[in-house]
Write a structure and sequence with these properties.
Blueprint lengths: L5 E2 L7 E2 L9 E3 L1 H17 L7 H4 L7 E6 L4 H12 L3 H9 L4 E5 L15 E11 L2 E9 L1 E3 L3 H11 L10 H34 L7 H13 L5 H65 L1
Parallel strand pairs: 1-4, 2-7, 3-8, 4-5
Antiparallel strand pairs: 5-6, 6-7
Helix pairs in contact: 3-4
Length: 297
């Protein structure tokens, strides 16, 4: 099975429901997810051949593990992981020399939106441990906690990818404005979803449905204090001023466009009237000349 095969097996027996005790601090960069998505798209569209070893292509990077697509790990993923860790194959021995405890990242394209309409981060990271079952030692996965860490260059890349694509025929000012407003709307909608999630967490905590996590509550409190407090009167005054300025600019632009149209119409009328005047003067001069010649005869 290649890394691009999507696993749909719902058998979770190979994933143990225990917390990780390895003490690893895992950070996921958005650029990694963009690379996985790009790999998945290229594979589906182009079906390219197997790429070279990542360590040979990117010698400055360290090998931390491998990834696949699917909802939950299955036996095929476990066998592939075990093979990559213990195989005597030359290529797999390089993996073992680089990292003896490889991580397994699984991205689920089908779980972007849940039944409640909340967008979940469709990424799970697993560590491998040896577990004893039926007096036999077996390899199993356990979920590992991780956090999303973003650099400045990745913010630029993610912002570029998030913008709606436009064709060469749709490069006008109106389409550019629509694309910008669409991006802003999506960002505001995501912010609203996250705020609703925090509000629901606080409500469930207050009603004792879930235990209170003081660290999370302190972070929410710090976030609320960081947000600026808007004064209604000052905001309405500033908003009214900016709104009037925008309307004034729009009216001036309309007047300017109307004046240009009138000027074009005047130029065309002058051109037409000037042509008629010159034709009439030529006709009158020819009549006078004919009368003189007739008088001489």
């Amino acid at each position: 099975m290649s890394a691009m095969d999507i696993t749909e097996d719902t058998n979770t027996s190979i994933v143990l429901d225990i917390q990780s005790s390895s003490g690893l601090s895992i950070s996921v960069h958005p650029l990694v997810l963009l690379n996985i998505s790009d790999h998945y798209t290229r594979t589906k569209l182009q079906n390219p051949s197997v790429v070279e070893n990542v360590k040979q292509v990117f010698p400055q990077l360290d090998f931390m593990g491998w990834y696949s697509l699917g909802s939950t790990p299955n036996e095929t993923d476990l066998k592939l992981h075990e093979q990559a860790s213990n195989s005597t194959n030359r290529k797999h021995r390089k993996f073992l020399q680089i990292n003896e405890s490889a991580l397994f990242l699984q991205l689920d394209p089908s779980s972007l939106v849940t039944d409640s309409g909340i967008r979940d981060f469709p990424v799970s990271i697993y560590e491998s441990i040896f577990d004893i079952a039926n007096e036999r030692t077996r390899l199993a996965f356990i979920k590992a906690a991780y956090r999303v860490e973003t650099g400045e260059a990745e913010c630029i890349a993610v912002d570029h990818v998030a913008k709606p694509s436009t064709s060469s025929a749709d490069t006008g000012l109106g389409n550019t404005l629509i694309a910008h407003l669409t991006t802003q709307r999506n960002a505001i909608a995501m912010l609203h979803t996250r705020i609703q999630f925090l509000l629901r967490y606080l409500q469930d905590t207050e009603s004792s449905q879930i235990p209170m996590d003081h660290d999370i509550v302190r972070q929410i409190s710090s976030l609320c204090r960081r947000s600026p407090i808007l004064e209604k009167k000052a905001f309405e005054t500033q908003f009214s001023t900016e709104y009037d300025d925008v309307l004034l600019v729009a009216y001036l632009a309309t007047i300017t466009k109307g004046l240009n149209t009138v000027n074009d119409l005047v130029d065309k009328l002058n051109l037409v009237n000037g042509g008629h005047s010159s034709t009439s003067s030529k006709t009158m001069s020819m009549n006078k000349k004919g009368r003189r010649m007739h008088g001489r005869h």
